[in-house]
Design a protein that fits this description.
Elements: E1 7-16, E2 19-29, E3 32-38, E4 48-51, E5 56-59, E6 61-66, E7 68-69, E8 72-73, H1 79-91, E9 94-101, H2 106-120, E10 128-135, H3 157-165, E11 169-174, H4 181-190, E12 194-197, H5 204-213, E13 217-218, H6 234-241, E14 246-250, H7 258-268, E15 273-276, E16 288-292, E17 295-300, E18 303-305, H8 318-329, H9 333-336, H10 342-347, E19 365-368, E20 374-379, E21 382-386
Parallel strand pairs: 1-4, 1-5, 6-9, 9-10, 10-11, 11-12, 12-13, 13-14, 14-15
Antiparallel strand pairs: 1-2, 2-3, 5-19, 7-8, 16-17, 17-18, 19-20, 20-21
The chain binds zinc ion.
């Protein structure tokens, strides 16, 4: 029986949650994965069919930490900015992302979140906008990185309640030692948001207390926190040793040395690593001057820094992050894949719908060549990008 709008990928190396196999096929119907099989697909199958000639069919990538791309930034607070970002990320294999804010005065953050809430419910013709990641302003000035210290402040319930009223907040990054953050963790968890520690000088003990309150993630592990000290484990020691914590990594080989990427994956296990880009407006653009949440940033040879030399987000794309972590760890594509797919989907509580190739899940699928270049991206059954 032919179904209108159905789509068949065949002769693919299909990467499912349980393993990968050659000469597989996946039938997409109504935006979802309808059937998966091996060998020659049933003849009746689909309206549109693509022979992948042995290329790999993967679940779409999910990026929990993306500020901007192509000269646009989440803090622009315009639908156009988010749609351009969504299209750019989709070309690099991302089928779902969180638009990430920066430390700013209350009104610009609220405007950015309202904009995210609006665009979440409209088609993007790109990666699905899954919500907002509010990074700051409740951060530690001493570990500000590229965030503007002038806008850092204690957590104020009157402010963050308004964030949650937008319905956009999926993930919050805060420093657990900042006044008011304990109440904020409780509030966020009650309102189904994920809470991450970042831009922090928290002690190991402060991290443990935050975990008891519901902290489950660490934002760009190693960056914007004290290095590991064997007598003062701090945020890094807590991140690497506490099973309750998953760790975001920027695998661009600039923010973290490949040897430390390997160390982090060994310490946490693949299932507790989440690859992110931390991409800013310079992603997909030539070297030059850009703004990151209102802060002037120079991109030189693809590396983004503020005037005082702090790394200021990245120009990384997530499929390159995946390739880099495979190179750093020696893991296979199949083994490394959850770090950019299932783990971030699970962190958001979306793994019943997203994050792997399984019957009934959203048809968020990508085709990659042997070098992990993305040749096709499908978002909920719609081909968004094809080389
Ligand atoms: Zn950051």
């Amino acid at each position: 029986m032919r179904v209108t709008g159905s789509f068949l990928f065949h002769n693919a190396r299909v990467h499912t949650e349980d393993g990968s196999f050659e000469r597989g096929w996946v039938l997409v119907e109504g935006g979802r994965i309808a059937r998966i099989g091996r060998g020659v697909p049933p003849p009746e199958s689909a309206v549109e069919s693509t022979d992948l000639q042995g290329q790999a069919l993967l679940p779409g990538l999910v990026d929990l930490h993306a500020h901007g791309a192509l000269g646009h930034d989440t803090m622009d607070a315009t639908p156009e900015a988010l749609r351009e970002m969504a299209r750019f990320y989709a070309r690099h294999g991302v089928t779902g992302f969180l638009a990430t804010t920066m430390s700013s005065p209350p009104l610009p953050i609220l405007a950015a979140l309202r904009n995210v809430a609006e665009v979440m419910h409209a088609p993007t013709r790109g990666a699905a906008l899954l919500g907002a990641h509010v990074e700051g302003p409740h951060l530690d000035v001493e570990r500000r990185g590229c965030q503007d210290p002038a806008h850092m402040r204690p957590a104020d319930p009157d402010e963050y309640r308004r964030w949650f009223e937008t319905g956009a907040v999926a993930l919050l990054t805060l420093a657990p030692e900042v006044p008011g953050s304990q109440e904020m963790i409780r509030y966020a968890v009650e309102h189904s948001a994920v809470v991450a520690a970042g831009h922090t000088r928290a002690s190991y003990e402060q991290m443990c207390r935050a975990v008891k309150l519901g902290l489950t993630q660490v934002t760009h592990l190693f960056n914007a926190m004290d290095p590991l000290h064997h007598r003062q484990p701090g945020a890094v020691g807590a991140a690497l040793s506490l099973d309750a914590l998953s760790c975001q990594l920027i695998a661009d080989n600039v923010h973290i040395h490949p040897a430390v990427l390997k160390l982090a994956v060994r310490a946490k296990g693949v299932e507790r690593i989440i690859l992110i880009t931390d991409a800013m407006a310079g992603a997909g653009m030539p070297d030059g001057q850009y703004s990151l949440g209102g802060l002037a940033v120079t991109v030189r040879q693809g590396v983004a820094r503020t005037a005082d030399g702090a790394l200021a987000g990245s120009t990384l794309t997530l499929e390159r992050g995946l390739a880099n972590i495979i190179a750093a760890t020696g893991l296979s594509l199949q083994q490394a894949l959850p770090m950019a797919t299932l783990n971030p989907a699970r962190a958001l509580g979306l793994d019943a719908r997203k994050g792997s190739i399984a019957v009934g899940k959203d048809a968020d699928l990508i085709v990659v060549d042997a070098e992990l270049n993305v040749v096709l991206t499908m978002v909920t059954g719609e081909v968004i990008h094809r080389l």
